[in-house]
């Protein structure tokens, strides 16, 4: 039984397989020819593997940058990293995480089928991370066994459907009406950035309309502009860290050469991500029409944040830089106030900061992208610091969950559970159930809630 559960977990925690499976079901529902089913199923799988490969290149080159910054500026503290904290958690909560994940996926599909929250969450690794968080927080309160699995699975499935719906009107602005939703558990940070864009961005031109003189027109090439931006980051970090430390990271390679190679490799990773995204969208969206028309009427795919990078490539870089600056400011504030020092994690600030920039740009142009992503950076500092006390055994690890939704859900359940016990958790579950059901009675529409442009 455990081997079967492990197999299921491995399948559904791999977004590539999950996207391929969804595409396959959709194409079968559309009664496409066998060769189209084959190519249409393989397309999203290969596209996501390409996206993952690009993300792997980005992450592997962000790690030495983070080490150079920590060493050069003599910073020590907690580094938020979802992968790191989950790997620690699996030794304590492996079975709980696995079963919560399976139940959560089933609940998400049931919600999409029978309510107006018709969002199918396709980012399997983030579902896995959230399952781990829920197992840790509920376990720390004292909930165990089948009760933990059912409650954790319900919260996972419900948030997988509700979180894309909250900001769907903004997401449609980002995608110019493309039938996609945000399937990433840092969504609250993106939506906050979008709201800030509305407040501060009136009259501000889009980041994508920045006028570039002809002699600088090569900067319009996203790969080139990313490479030049990151070269500045890496060279500055290498100079501050010093040749001796960087030579240890590089295995003896000259520290300036190593910094240049890392910066250029980072840009290559971004280019691979863009190529993978285009491949996913080319096959997944047409196939998903089969799901929407036959299996789960009007279903909307909720996909990884990196899928949105191609809609505003300039906002990606602006968002990353602004979010990272916000993270540094947040770290300094925590240091001055005596809180846990949250060191800005380069991975969350790149992926989440970039996406916050995209949302801020969609609603408020350049000002929205800059200020919205900066506030996102502050959230990525403060929320993990507040989350640590409710993680139980995981709170002692030298890392924590990095994205806003993990923190918000964990803090809400943890604080309420600690003050009201199991009763508080069941109150939240009841309120969540009402949120899912009530829209069905308020409107006869079968369209996914909020899936209409403002």
Automatic annotation (TrEMBL):
UniProt-annotated location(s): Cell membrane
Membrane topology summary: Multi-pass membrane protein
Keyword Transcription: no
The keyword Membrane appears for this protein: yes
GO cellular component, one term: plasma membrane
Bilayer-crossing regions: 12-30, 37-59, 92-112, 119-142, 148-166, 224-243, 255-281, 302-325, 331-359, 371-391, 423-442
Tree of life domain: Bacteria
Keywords: Cell membrane, Membrane, Phosphotransferase system, Sugar transport, Transmembrane, Transmembrane helix, Transport
GO BP field: phosphoenolpyruvate-dependent sugar phosphotransferase system
Family: Belongs to the UlaA family.
Subunit structure: Homodimer.
General function of this protein: The phosphoenolpyruvate-dependent sugar phosphotransferase system (sugar PTS), a major carbohydrate active transport system, catalyzes the phosphorylation of incoming sugar substrates concomitantly with their translocation across the cell membrane. The enzyme II UlaABC PTS system is involved in ascorbate transport.
Name the UniProt record assigns to this protein: Ascorbate-specific PTS system EIIC component
Biological source species: Falseniella ignava CCUG 37419
């Amino acid at each position: 039984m455990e081997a079967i559960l492990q197999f299921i977990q491995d399948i559904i925690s791999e977004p590539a397989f999950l996207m391929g499976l969804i595409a396959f079901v959709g194409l079968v529902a559309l009664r496409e020819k066998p060769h189209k089913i084959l190519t249409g199923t393989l397309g999203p799988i290969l596209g996501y593997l390409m996206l993952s490969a690009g993300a792997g290149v980005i992450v592997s080159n962000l790690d030495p940058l983070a080490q150079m910054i920590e060493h050069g500026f003599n910073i020590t503290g907690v580094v938020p990293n979802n992968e790191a904290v989950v790997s620690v958690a699996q030794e304590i909560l492996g079975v709980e995480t696995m079963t919560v994940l399976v139940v959560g996926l089933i609940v998400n599909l049931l919600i999409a089928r029978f309510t107006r929250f018709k969002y199918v969450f396709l980012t399997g690794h983030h579902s896995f991370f959230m399952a781990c968080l829920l197992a840790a927080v509920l376990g720390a309160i004292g909930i165990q066994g089948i009760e933990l699995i059912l409650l954790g699975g319900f919260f996972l499935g419900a948030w997988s459907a509700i979180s894309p719906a909250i900001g769907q009107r903004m997401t449609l602005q980002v995608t110019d009406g493309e039938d996609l939703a945000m399937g990433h558990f840092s969504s609250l940070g993106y939506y906050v950035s979008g709201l800030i864009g509305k407040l501060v961005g009136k009259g501000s031109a889009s980041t994508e309309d920045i006028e570039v003189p002809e002699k600088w027109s090569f900067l319009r090439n996203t790969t080139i502009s990313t490479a030049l931006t990151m070269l500045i980051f890496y060279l500055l970090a290498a100079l501050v860290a010093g040749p001796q430390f960087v030579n240890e990271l590089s295995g003896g390679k000259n520290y300036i050469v190593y910094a240049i190679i890392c910066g250029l490799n980072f840009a290559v990773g971004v280019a691979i991500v863009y190529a993978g995204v285009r491949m996913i969208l080319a096959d997944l969206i047409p196939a998903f029409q089969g799901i929407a028309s036959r299996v789960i009427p009007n279903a909307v795919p909720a996909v990884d944040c990196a899928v949105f990078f191609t809609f505003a490539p300039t906002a990606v870089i602006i968002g990353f830089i602004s979010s990272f600056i916000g993270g540094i400011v947040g770290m300094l504030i925590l240091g001055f106030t005596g809180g846990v020092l949250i060191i800005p994690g380069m991975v969350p600030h790149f992926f989440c900061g970039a996406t916050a920039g995209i949302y801020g740009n969609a609603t408020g142009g350049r000002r929205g992208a800059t200020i919205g992503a900066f506030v996102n950076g502050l959230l990525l500092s403060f929320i993990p610091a507040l989350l640590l006390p409710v993680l139980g055994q995981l709170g002692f690890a030298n890392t924590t969950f990095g994205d806003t939704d993990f923190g918000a859900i964990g803090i809400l359940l943890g604080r309420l559970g600690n003050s009201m016990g199991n009763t508080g958790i069941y109150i939240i579950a009841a309120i969540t159930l009402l949120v899912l059901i009530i829209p069905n009675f308020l409107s006869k529409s079968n369209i996914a809630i909020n899936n209409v442009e403002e």
